[in-house]
Specification:
about 375 residues, DNA polymerase, domain 1, TIM Barrel, binds iron/sulfur cluster, alpha/beta, binds S-adenosyl-L-homocysteine, two-stranded antiparallel sheet, globular
């Protein structure tokens, strides 16, 4: 498109308004000579009415709509494939031009959870994770993070609200390490929780991290969010092997960072979640459980045991369900709140750690699934 000039901006390409939180949206409107309340109006159109067509935003002046159409757009990446599991879980492939990512909707009795991705691929190379095996492609833009929620809301909360439980919770547990895409994830979190945005309580948003310590410290200074930590090992020898990031930030330094975070956090008063993937003969014996309770004795936390989900070319075996129960009971008897995560969407490769962004359906089938 041609370059549009005004006093403050040179627009070479259209600005995607999905990249802006409330503050940035107001700045943008001021910079094009408009009143900042128009920014609030447009956020309501985008996030409350799921409208991306400027012509339909009838409470904005005609001239403003014309101007916005010229210089900006509201674009959420498209869902190009949809797979539905027998347990009701839905996985969408999101079109990012050869660097596709995945988003998963998990319906439960009393809530609907959306699991979103923060990066295409992941650099951290955890041995048990399909995303890690894929390697790193790139960080997602704010519009690509928020866009997953926008599209899923449109599908579930608007179009199919009588069939599906509406999305009530967001977990940043899809592809990628959210704290390595820090600024974009923070802006996306602001849009999620803002009442002009998706208006989701921060208590219903969980950020899961493998434990990037400087970023946890930074997070504690600027935003309170529910935190889940991928611990997955009861000592450094095992964690070094299965999560290479441990060589940089070991268990002891990670636990100290968690304590610092907890001191500042209001919404993690009940403790953070410790995620622990159960890998047969690697970290799943009662010896490991004993080590784990020693590590966590001063950390207010709930332990979430995750049955390991298989993926192509992986070298691990999932722990037997009896072993997982034994492990859980041991922790419970020692006074630790412990749950076992119910795997969801395994038949469509939508469960934790199975996401890899690979298309596996033919075009025709794609059309069948998408409206
Ligand atoms: N990068 C972040 C968030 C994405 S992974 C993190 O690592 O926390 C979300 C969760 O799924 C993490 O706890 C991760 O360790 C776990 N996970 C990864 N691969 C898995 C697999 N194959 N089976 C079960 N859980 C897995
Ligand atoms: Fe990355 Fe998380 Fe997978 Fe590790 S578990 S490779 S941090 S996405």
């Amino acid at each position: 498109m041609k370059i549009i000039q005004n006093d403050n901006f040179n627009f070479r390409e259209k600005i995607n308004l999905l990249n802006f939180d409330r503050h940035q949206m107001r700045n943008f409107f001021c910079s094009i000579g408009e009143k900042s309340f128009c920014a609030d109006q447009i956020m309501i159109w985008i996030y409350h009415h799921f409208c991306c067509d400027f012509d339909k935003m009838t409470n904005l002046k005609k001239n403003l709509r014309k101007k916005l159409k010229k210089i900006s757009t509201i674009f959420a990446p498209k869902f190009i494939q949809e797979k539905v599991s027998i347990d009701g879980t839905i996985k969408w492939m999101v079109d990012l031009n050869n660097q596709n990512i995945e988003t998963v909707y998990i319906p439960e009795k009393n809530r609907g959870t959306l699991c979103i991705s923060s990066q295409s691929g992941c650099i951290l190379n955890c041995q048990f994770c399909a995303t890690g095996h894929q390697g790193f492609n790139r960080n997602l833009l704010v519009s690509e993070i928020v866009g997953q929620i926008w599209r899923a809301y449109k599908k579930i909360n608007i179009l199919k609200k009588n069939i599906f439980h509406p999305i009530t919770n967001i977990v940043i547990m899809g592809m990628g390490e959210p704290l390595l895409n820090f600024n974009n994830v923070i802006t996306a979190l602001r849009i999620m929780s803002d009442n002009l945005g998706f208006n989701i309580s921060k208590r219903k948003i969980v950020l899961s991290t493998s434990g990037i310590i400087p970023a946890i410290d930074k997070l504690s200074k600027i935003m309170d969010v529910k935190l889940a930590i991928s611990l997955h090992a009861s000592n450094n020898t095992i964690r070094n092997k299965i999560m290479p990031i441990n060589k940089k930030y070991n268990i002891e330094s990670l636990l100290s960072a968690i304590l610092r975070f907890l001191k500042k956090s209001k919404i993690n008063k009940d403790g953070i979640t410790i995620e622990y993937v159960m890998l047969k003969n690697i970290n799943d014996t009662l010896y490991h459980a004993q080590q784990l309770i020693k590590l966590l004795r001063y950390i207010p936390s709930k332990i979430n045991l995750i049955p390991w989900n298989n993926f192509l070319n992986s070298n691990f075996t999932a722990s037997d369900s009896n072993q997982i129960k034994k492990f859980a009971n041991f922790l419970i008897n020692k006074g630790f709140v412990t749950t076992i995560r119910k795997p969801r969407g395994q038949d469509i490769q939508a469960a934790c750690g199975q996401l890899n962004g690979n298309l596996s359906y033919s075009i025709n089938k794609k059309k069948m699934f998408l409206k």
